[in-house]
Amino acid sequence: MKGIVFTEFMELVESKFGEDTMEDMLEAADLSSDGSYTSVGTYDHNELVKMVEELSKITKVDVPDLIKAFGNHLGVVFYTKFTTFFEQADGTLEFLKSIDDHIHVEVAKLYPDAELPVFAYKEHEDGSFHLFYSSTRGFSDLAHGLIEATSGYYKESFSIEREDSIEGSTHKTHFVLTPS
Q1: Which of 161, 159, 156, 8 is nearest to 72 (CA)?
Q2: Mean pLDDT for the chain?
Q3: What distances in angstroms separate CA 124 from CA 43, 52, 98, 118, 144, one per listed residue?
Q4: Is pTM beyond 0.85 here?
């Protein structure tokens, strides 16, 4: 997993819970990297999982809620640092449609070793938008937070329903976005 995810997680933890909580989380997680990350490095995603689990124990906030909140935070970081991708779309749904065919293509050029989730979509006649997430890492809650942050960027509102499943080692989530 790319280092920007780790560095931004550390920033979120420090800003929301304080430096002492971050230090306690890192000590309890007992990471092989010792919690030292660069934004351009590549790291084992299990280290992020360990940190979130330890943060959950310390803060008493459920793991899915922490990961979703991190997705919201990361979405703001992405539209601040990678504005061009957001400016190229007219709204949330157009942006979500561009993830695999445009954004992930560009990310893969910059980071050929990046393991990216797969997104597909289908629009229904009833006005709902169906987004399908697939990844061996199982960060559906992160994707959910990113979707919320994206709709916030475009000042659009959606109700988001989801159904999670696992097929072998692949985590799949079917998101249904309905304008609200």
Answers
A1: 8
A2: 94
A3: 38, 36, 18, 20, 20
A4: yes
